[in-house]
Structures are given as structure tokens and as C-alpha cells.
Structure of peptidylprolyl isomerase:
Amino acid sequence: GTTGSEVFEDTQKRGKPIVFVSGSRPFTGGLCIGAEEGLAGMRGGGRRRVTVPADRGFGPKFGVG
């Protein structure tokens, strides 16, 4: 992902997938709601590019929203 033009997550470059429990919000706080929405319905091993608008991201705490 990016903030403006800055990449903050690139699982392909990192060589490891993101691992999370779908629907665990708000208890885990790991993924923003926009990422969870974008990844909904995926199966293990799937690939998807997700763009999250600022209003569905982490909000003002992280300089967006």
C-alpha cells in the first residue's frame, strides 16, 4: 500500500503474505476496515491488489482521513 506516493505494505517485495483473521475487527486492530472489505471473499493463496481510500483507512492518527 501507499500513503500518497509512499509504499507502506508490499507483500510481494517482502516475500510473505499478510496473515489475519477475517471479521476479527475491532478486537485485533491489525487491518483497517477498507483492507478487510477489499480482501473479503478471498481464499487462501489468492492474489488481489487493494486500494483503500483515506476515509476507509486508519484515519487521522496515521496522517490520513
Summary: The chain has a mean pLDDT of 74. The first helix runs from residue 11 to 14. DSSP finds two helices and two strands in the chain.
